[in-house]
Amino acid sequence: MKNIKIRIATFMAILLIIICTGLGIQSYNTSSKALIENTKDTMPQLALEASKVIEYGISKELSSLDIISSNTKISYVEKSPEDISEIINMMDKEVKRSGYLKMAIVDKSGNAIYNNGQKSNLKGEEYFKNAMSGEKTVTDPIKDKGSDSIVMVYAVPIKNNGNTIGALIAFRDGYELCDLAKETKLGKTGSAFVINKEGKTIAHSDQSIISKIVDASSSATVTQDKADVSSSATVKENETDAGSSATISGNITKTAEGFENFSNLQTLMSEGKTGFGEYKFNGTPKLIGYAPVKERVWSVAVEMDKKEVLSGLTELKTKFIIISTISSLIGILVSYIIAVGIDKPIKFLTGECDKMANGDFTLILNDKYTKRKDEIGNLAKSFNQINISVSEIIRNVMSEANNVNSFVNTSTHSISQLNTMIEELSSITEEISSGMGRTATSTVEMKNSSADIKKSVESITVKAQEGALSAKEISEKALKLKNNFLLSQNSLSKILDETKKNLEEALKRAESVDEINKLSSAILHVTSQTNMLALNANIEASRAGDAGKGFMVVAGEIRKLAEYSKQTATEIQGITKDVIDSVGNLSVNSNNMLEFIASDINNDYNLILKTMEQYISDTALTNNLINDFNKNSREIFNSMEGMLKEIEGISSATSEGAEGTESIAEKLNRVLEKADEVKMQVKYSKNSIDTLVNIVSRFKV
Predict the structure, then answer these.
(1) From the CB of residue 126, how many other CB atoms can be counted at a distance below 10 Å?
(2) pLDDT band at 446, cuts 50/70/90?
(3) Nearest to 511 by CA among 571, 584, 594, 591
């Protein structure tokens, strides 16, 4: 995107889209939170109303049953069984009138007589125990063992003079609690259910769920001994209906049949709390409000899909997308118009810059741009000012270039005349310098010859001195060498005596090697005896048969050891013989060497001492001759030194005159070189001025 117009429009479009998207997300989140908060207040209230309806229905049935139990005819316990037909008829009429499935009257022992005349014993039933304790009670939906239908059992105590003498029970349709839950309507996906204190679902808007739950309870493993099939059995944990999110029994965990985050809600409901929560069932987010049923250990819950609660935001989302799209398009159009307004002047000013880059400064921008009050107007005014300023600079440069060109021409002529005059003066000075140089050369040659003679004499003197010193050092070294030879001769004598003494003692100690030979002979004798002993032991072991096999092995090993010892002793004798021979040879050679040192080397020492004494005498004679020669060479050197001083004065005067003449010639040559350099610089300046004039002439001002 090199075009600034497209870039501005694109950036503005992206910015508008980001802003609209951000506002949309923020609005959606705010609206969603508001709906959730509203639902958070509404659903628990709705659950509370449902719990009141259920409590009212249950209380009404128990009150009706309590009224019937207070009838004096019910006290059949005080009568004989033959006189209860009237009570049975009364119960049968009440069943038909109130919609009970059946009724029964139970004595203290749990013996029950139903309205159809049947009998049973309910002593172990929990609802009977509760009624006998004076409590009005109702069971969860259970399966009746007589009819296999789902029922709820209502039980109230029968009292006489304040004493509980029995219980009146009534069986009603178990789905009546589901009908009460069904009356609570909440949207399309909303439903209500009731759980007991164990967290088991006992009523649901969908009756089929309760049917499956009770069927499962009837066939489930019962945790208590002697549980009646008509009671509410404890079903296996994590057993749920696939068509509902209601719980059957047990604590629901995240991994249990698609439930997530439900166990905490289940605990709160079982504890009789009122509240609101969220959970997921098979991945579907759900909202739930719950409240306890007063006087019961039940809790009513109202649930609804979260998606349905937030469904009202879908239309808001659609409208926002449409508004955002329209706003973005309008923004893009406005951005494009603004970008065109910026792009057009910039393109015009760019064209003017290209003309100025090509040297055309005659153009002046019109008032269309210079009278604008924005940055474009300021830029146009700046362009005009640049045009005027650069044009003035170029005019001044052209005028000054012409003036410099005229001055350069005049300077070039003057420098040419100066060069001619300097060349003539340089030629005369070189001739004078040449004559002075020849004179100076002759003087220098004479001086050099005298200096060479002086150096030779001086060298001879130095050599004579060095020779005297060397002769003295040689004499001292010869004397020192003589003394060292005397010390060395004495030391050699001492060493020779000590070496001879030590060698004799070593040869005496070497005679002990012969003892090793004797010991080796003894070892050979022992090994021979051992070998014979091993052979005899082997023969005796053979005679012993199997009993002597172990001893035979030992005898064989001893024989091998004897053979090895014999071999080793033989090798020791051989080595001992070589050692004795070597010691003998060493003794002979050592004596020869000591005799050679005592005779020949001692004589050589004496001869060298005589030679050293003669050498010291010759050195003293040489030292005297060198000292005389040194004295004579010193006198010749002093004479040559005076002559050289005189010659050096003449040479110095001649050299100064030659150097002065040469210095004048050199300075003239330098002046001539500088004049040529100035001439070349003037020439380069003229070329530069001509180039500058040509460049400036390309500008239009």
Answers:
(1) 15
(2) low
(3) 584
Q: How far apart are CA 191 and CA 287, in angstroms?
A: 11
Q: What is the pLDDT of residue 510?
A: 63
Supply the DSSP string of 606-625, one letter for each residue: HHHHHHHHHHHHHHHHHHHH
Amino acid sitting at position 671: V
Q: Is 204 left (phi over 0), alpha (psi -120 to 50) or beta?
A: beta
Residue 500: half-sphere exposure toward Cβ, Cα within 13 Å: 14
Are residues 18 and 324 in contact, defined by beta-carbon separation less than 8 angstroms?
no
* pLDDT tens-digit map of 525-535: 777 888 787 78
Quick check: 156 and 74 in contact, CB under 8 A?
A: no
| Predicted confidence band of residue 221 (pLDDT cuts 50, 70, 90) | very low
Q: Tell me the domains of the chain and their CATH numbers.
A: 70-172 (3.30.450.20), 460-695 (1.10.287.950)
d(Cα 74, Cα 89) in Å, to the nearest integer?
11
Mean pLDDT of 517-541: 78
Least confident stretch, 87-91, 289-293, 373-377: 373-377
What value, to the nearest 5°, has the Cα angle with vertex 575 and ends 571 and 577?
Answer: 115
Q: How far apart are CA 249 and CA 196, in angstroms?
A: 9
Strands (E), 283-425: 284-293, 298-305
